[in-house]
Amino acid sequence: MRLIRENCNASRNLFGDVTSLVAGAVYTLAFAPFNFSYAAFPALAYLFFTAIVLSPKRAALSGYLFGLGQFGFGVSWVYVSVHDYGGGGLLGSLLIAGLFVGFWALFPALAVYLATQLPYKRSSRLLLFPLLWVLVEYLRGRIVLQGFPWLQIAYSQLDTPLAGYIPVIGGYGTGLLAVLSAAMLIGIASRPKSSLWLWACMAGVWIAGGWLRTAAWTQPIGEPIKAALIQGNVAQDKKWLPETRVGTILQYIQMTEAHWDSQVIVWPESAVPAYLSDVYEAFLMPLGQAAKAHQSDLIVSVPSYGNAEGEKYNSVITLGREAGMYRKVHLLPFGEYMPWQPVSGWILAHFNMRLSHFTPGRPDQPLLSAGGYRFSTSICYEDAFAENALRGLPEAAYLVNATNDAWFGDSIEPHQHLQIARMRALEAGRYLLRSTNTGATAIISPEGRVIGQAPLFTAATLTGVIQPMAGLTPFARLGGDAPIALFMLALLLGVLIEGNTQAIGACLGKARRCEGKP
To answer: Residue 434: which H helix or E strand, with range?
Structure first.
């Protein structure tokens, strides 16, 4: 009989482990390119339910398996980048991708484990889980390794009523409402006869979000701008070859010359496969003179050298009526700089992998101008962080992002990255011009909607008209994500203090009863 019970427990544990893994993968379906936004809610509801019914160790394991499903499926493009374009062999690429997924899977496990350990009142449970989940998301997305905010739940809600909260409380505040909705599903399922107030609360949150989507937080200024976004579709493994370098530059010049009727022309990240000082006089200076003659401005991404030896920057320059330079501030870990030295350097050297080594630019750089207006610039990965877009407000009339997602091939990454860019436009209340090498090149409205997109993996020029905007969204007035995170932390502390009140009172009562006893 004992053996039968042990086998039954092992079977239940195995079933639960597999279900947790599957739930993590289902959670990923809420994001682009699948866009099943509501898949996130049952997946998270299941995960939080495990924290209620399982022991702390088993709940943490469930959270880790959830994370393996979430990141193993959701960021599978890491293998493509390392193997196809980073120079890693099969074994090395699998190892690097596995370590990457395994590391980030620790964060869902941490959220669930804390939910089983921290003291709280039973009535506060529905609030505790969402707070822990989103605060751990903040830890992962903003602090550890300078942040990896991929698969942050708010990105999956850009096409639901909850998107109305994004220009008000940002991605993490909106994420809290999304996870709270998942937690309320647990409360409704566990107490269906007394769940009317939960239904009312959830309905109120979603109806208010839908109403907020109709609000206009920023205002049009000046005349519209005609823009052209150049997508060269240059293969990453051929881009930097000496024999193709001049041909690549000439291709971009020819595609540009066909659109001198545009006031702003944007090239993607590292469109010029050479350093600025090597190609400026021969190619870029004459192109800038031609742009000025046609009353046009070019926004060109090109790496540049600094003044000190070994100082290199991932840069964007403007050519034409106004000249300027922006140097990328928020570098990509393991792509543009190497954390955890010397271990990370040894691993890459051992597997013969090639990565860039850039210097970060200063955060206080002046805004660039094109089309008669100043704009806020981000390069590739920088658009994953709200503060990079908000830094130039309210002076910036629109946003520009230059990206090269060719590193990830025909994977789900370009779709996810476009979804992230949509969040920045919605938070800032500005149009976003997003030019990429292979896709997804797009024009995004202040409401976070894609109003024009070039086909992926095709040499194409996307043209469209954008409206310069002024004013600040409530989220921009708050100053970004940090105040929202501090508020949630204070709320969490309040929940924990409330949960400890009864225990402290009981201890004090016991101490008084014991006074005077020998």
So the answer is: strand 432-436
Q: What is the pLDDT of residues 476-493, one digit of tens each?
A: 999 999 999 999 999 999
Mention every residue, 6+ apart, whose C-beta is less than 8 A from residue 106. Answer: 64, 67
For residue 258, the 8-state DSSP code is: T
Chain segment 210-264, per-residue pLDDT in tens? 999 999 999 999 999 999 999 999 988 788 888 899 999 999 999 999 999 999 9
| Annotated catalytic residue, options 137, 239, 328, 413 | 328
Whether the ω angle into residue 360 lies within 30 degrees of 0, i.e. cis, is no
Catalytic residue among 137, 269, 382, 447: 269
Residue 226 bears catalytic tag = no
**Residue 201 annotated in active site:** no
pLDDT at 44 over 90: yes
Residue written as token pair 């690097």:
96
Sheet with 398-403, side-by-side order of all strands? 368-370, 373-379, 398-403, 432-436, 442-444, 450-453
Only one residue has tokens 């190609």, namely 279
- The single-letter DSSP state of residue 275 is -
Asked if residues 454 and 460 have their Cβ atoms less than 8 Å apart, the reply is yes
On average, the pLDDT of the chain sits at 89
Confidence class for position 282, pLDDT limits 50, 70, 90: very high
The lowest-confidence range among 240-254, 340-354, 370-384 is: 340-354
- Beta strand 398-403 pairing with 432-436: parallel
Residue type, 3: L
Backbone phi, then psi, for 227, in 5-degree steps?
-125, 150
* Order of strands across the sheet that contains 312-320: 324-327, 312-320, 297-305, 264-266, 225-231, 460-466
Mean pLDDT of 295-320: 93
Cα distance between residue 31 and residue 23, in whole Å: 14
Count the neighbouring beta carbons within 10 Å of the beta carbon of residue 200.
Answer: 10
Strand 460-466 and strand 450-453: pairing? unpaired
Beta carbons within 10 angstroms of residue 499's beta carbon:
18
Strands 219-220 and 469-470: antiparallel
Confidence at residue 353, expressed as pLDDT on a 0 to 100 scale: 46
Q: What are the Cα distances from residue 87, in Å, to 91, 156, 354?
A: 12, 32, 6
238 is catalytic: no
Annotated catalytic residue: which of 137, 239, 380, 447? 380
- DSSP bridge pairs for 265: 228, 298
How distant, in Å, are the alpha carbons of 34, 331, 343, 454 from that of 334?
27, 9, 12, 29
| Residue linked to tokens 């605060």 | 135
Q: pTM for this structure?
A: 0.90
- Structural domains in the chain, CATH included, are 2-216+483-504 (no CATH), 219-329+359-471 (3.60.110.10)
